[in-house]
Write a structure and sequence with these properties.
By secondary structure, this protein is α/β, with parallel strands linked by helices. It has helices at about 1-10, 20-25, 30-35, 105-120, 125-130, 135-145, 150-155, 165-170, 230-235; strands at about 15-20, 40-45, 60-65, 75, 75-80, 80-85, 90-95, 160, 195-200, 205, 210, 225-230, 245-250, 260-265, 275-280, 305-310. The strands form five sheets. Strands 9-15-12-14-13-16 form a six-stranded mixed beta barrel. Strands 1-2-3 form a three-stranded parallel beta sheet, with no helix packed on it. A three-stranded antiparallel beta sheet has the order 6-7-8, with no helix packed on it. Strand 6 and strand 7 form a beta hairpin. The chain starts with a helix and ends in a 10-residue tail after the last strand. The relative contact order is 0.12.
C-alpha cells in the first residue's frame, strides 16, 4: 500500500517487478492502475503474460525469462536456485526441460546485467561472478543472514534445511525465555442494513492470482468464478434469487464507488450478514486506505458491500 501511495505522489519513477502480477494482486484495482501509469518506466521480468503487463508507465518493458522448470546453463555449468516452503524448509529447485528459446536469460542473469550497467561505479560487487555461478550469491548470503550458515553445503542435502525460528528451536528470546502472548480487544465489524460484509478468498484450484480452472470443488462451484456466496436467508431478505446477476458495490468513507460487475448469486451457508467472492476478481472493491492496525494489510476479509441487480426486474402478470 505504501508503494502505491508513493507512486501516486510521484515519488516512484521506476517500477521493476520480478515475476508476479502486481496489478491483480494489489487492492483497489483502479487506484493501483492509475498509480502504475504515473511511472516513467515499468519493467517486468516474467515467464508469461499477465494483466500487469498491460498497465504501463511512459516507457514499458517486458523481459522474458527462464522458468524454474527449464535448464539454466551459465559459465560455470548448470545452476539451481533455492526456495522456501511453508514449513520453513529451504531446498533446491533445478529445471530439467530445454528452454523455450535459446536466447532466454535467467532472472539472475537479467538482474546481474541490469545492475552491472546501472551501478558500474560499484566495482566491489562482482556481478559477473554472480551471474556465472549462483553459488557465489549463496555464499554471500551465508555471511549475513541468520540461519543460512554453510548455505551451499546444507541446501544440497536431501530435503535441504530448516530455517531457525522459536517454535522449531524451542528457544524464545524474551526476558523470561518463554513465548509471550498478547490479548487483543475483539472488534466485530457490522454491515448496515441492506449491506453485507464480504470476504475475498481463493478457489481450491488456484495459486496466488492464477486460477487454473473455473471450478471450485471445495464449494461445489463449476464453470465460473464470477459468483457471490450469500446466506440463503440474506438472499431472500435482499429480495434476490439464485443465479441472479448483481454488481458488488463497496462502501467506504472516501465517497468513491468501487464496483465489481456481473456476479451470480449463489445461496451458500455463510454466516448471516456475510458473503464471499473470489480473489483477485474482487480486489477492485478493497479500498487502498482500509488496512489492518499495525500490519497495514488490506482488509480483504471485511469489505462492506451492497448488491445491485444488473437489470430491471419484471413482475410476472397473471391472466
Amino acid at each position: 500500500m505504501n508503494s502505491i501511495k508513493a507512486m501516486r505522489e510521484g515519488r516512484v519513477k521506476v517500477f521493476l517487478a520480478l515475476a508476479g502480477n502486481f496489478v491483480r494482486a494489489a487492492p483497489d484495482s483502479a487506484v493501483t492502475e492509475e498509480a502504475m501509469r504515473t511511472c516513467r518506466l515499468t519493467a517486468h521480468i516474467s515467464t508469461k503474460l499477465n494483466r500487469s503487463h498491460t498497465v504501463c508507465g511512459a516507457t514499458a518493458l517486458i523481459l522474458p525469462t527462464l522458468g524454474r522448470t527449464e535448464r539454466d546453463l551459465q559459465a560455470s555449468g548448470e545452476q539451481f536456485v533455492t526456495v522456501e516452503n511453508s514449513m520453513s524448509q529451504v531446498h533446491t529447485s533445478q529445471g530439467r526441460l530445454e528452454p523455450a528459446s535459446p536466447v532466454l536469460l535467467s532472472e539472475v542473469a537479467i538482474l546481474c546485467r541490469l545492475a552491472r550497467r546501472t551501478l558500474d561505479g560499484r566495482a566491489d560487487i562482482p556481478w559477473d561472478e554472480f551471474e556465472a555461478d549462483y553459488g557465489t550469491i549463496r555464499e554471500r548470503i551465508s555471511r549475513i543472514v541468520p540461519g543460512f550458515h554453510d548455505f551451499n553445503a546444507r541446501v544440497t542435502r536431501p530435503g535441504g534445511f530448516q530455517l531457525p525460528n522459536p517454535v522449531n528451536e524451542g528457544v524464545f528470546r524474551t526476558a523470561v525465555g518463554k513465548a509471550l502472548f498478547t490479548c487483543n480487544e475483539p472488534v466485530v465489524p457490522r454491515a448496515p442494513a441492506g449491506h453485507l460484509l464480504l470476504q475475498t478468498l481463493r478457489s481450491h484450484d488456484q495459486w496466488n492470482t492464477v486460477p487454473y480452472t473455473q471450478n471450485d470443488r471445495y464449494r461445489g462451484i463449476h464453470g465460473s468464478r464470477h459468483v457471490v456466496l450469500v446466506n440463503p436467508d440474506d438472499v431472500r431478505g435482499l429480495g434476490l434469487t439464485e443465479g441472479e446477476q448483481v454488481d458488488l458495490v463497496s462502501v467506504w468513507g472516501d465517497g468513491t464507488e468501487r464496483r465489481a460487475e456481473g456476479f451470480a448469486v449463489v445461496p451458500y451457508p455463510t454466516a448471516r450478514g456475510s458473503a464471499a467472492a473470489y480473489y483477485p476478481e474482487t480486489n477492485v472493491l478493497v479500498p487502498l486506505d482500509s488496512v489492518a492496525d499495525i500490519s497495514n494489510q488490506p482488509t480483504s476479509k471485511g469489505i462492506v458491500v451492497r448488491l445491485e441487480t444488473r437489470s430491471p426486474r419484471t413482475t410476472p402478470t397473471s391472466s
